[in-house]
Amino acid sequence: MPTRQKVFFLTGLFMILSTMVFAADQLVFVTLITRHGDRSPFTNIKNANYKWKTPLEQLTPIGMKEEYMLGKKLRKRYVNNLKLLKPNYVDDSIYAVSSDYNRTIESAECLLTGLYPPRTGPKLENGKNALPYGIQPIPVRTVSKTSHLIMMPYLQYVAILKEYIYPSKVWQAKDKEYQPEFKEWTKILGNKITTLANILGVGDVLIVAEHHNKPLPKGLSKENAKKIIDLTSWGLATQFKSEKVSYLMGGELFNRIADNIKDAAAEKSKYKLVYYSGHDITILPIMSLLGVPLKNSPGYAANIEYELYKTDASAYIIKIRYNGNYVKLPIMDGKNQCTLEAFMKYVKEVNAKYSTPKAGASKQPLLF
User: Fold this and answer.
1) Which pTM does this prediction carry?
2) Residue 126 sits in a domain of what CATH number?
């Protein structure tokens, strides 16, 4: 066979084999967790006099766009490429649930609009759009503000920090390291800063201000602004370096996701995608419990995807992605995947370490 023909033959054979390998593992189910998009801050810096077009704590137009664009990426992956979802929404193919905050509910709605954009919505019998522009409504459920599923209620969150994090050696050391600068920052910003915990509120404002191209508060150097922002990111991530704290904060969701996956593998679930719309402190404990704690706090629209694949041998494997990149869990032995059995065994081991059953009861996940 001439060399040129050999090249074409081998290229074609490679493409066929690649397709066969790809087709061997069929994506059958996904659990998605997201942080809300860009929001206005929780409070203000007294001496900065920032004016926000969006009321405090609310999703901004930038945040809406971030979630919409994430939805478009997910459509490309799960509708166009992996064929998990149909091009037009099918009832009960998606279960979306949000914490009971405007910013997370709106973020879910924006993401789902990207996943099923205008012109994919239902038609009337005469062929015209049922809704203007062919909009496709998808239900978003909410949990109560007292629920522990997506985010620990704030006062309980603070209580956990006071018991486990603020007294820790690493937190105390960092607090001591920056004590000399707290007095200067208080004078410049006008906000009372006496501990590292105070920094997180101020740092949040600076992070949002930077995202919106706002000037620095008068007298605050770029170097000090960066220190405060970096400390804020470090502080949030450090809160969840402890697996015990992460279990207290995220154990219910960690187990709920395992149940979602188990039901999908047993073909007991009608859903193809289960979606949880939450916060940075929704993502942080999950990553920690998976054995891959984050070094920095998650950005806006950060996301985790648990993907369940069925192999040609009718077995199941799990792949996990964070912000679109595969995550290698410790149980994956350097690979991008693990068996369903290995994953469930790992979940059971985590529960065995941190759940606290009542006397005489069998060990069950600690559901708050």
Assistant:
1) 0.89
2) 3.40.50.1240
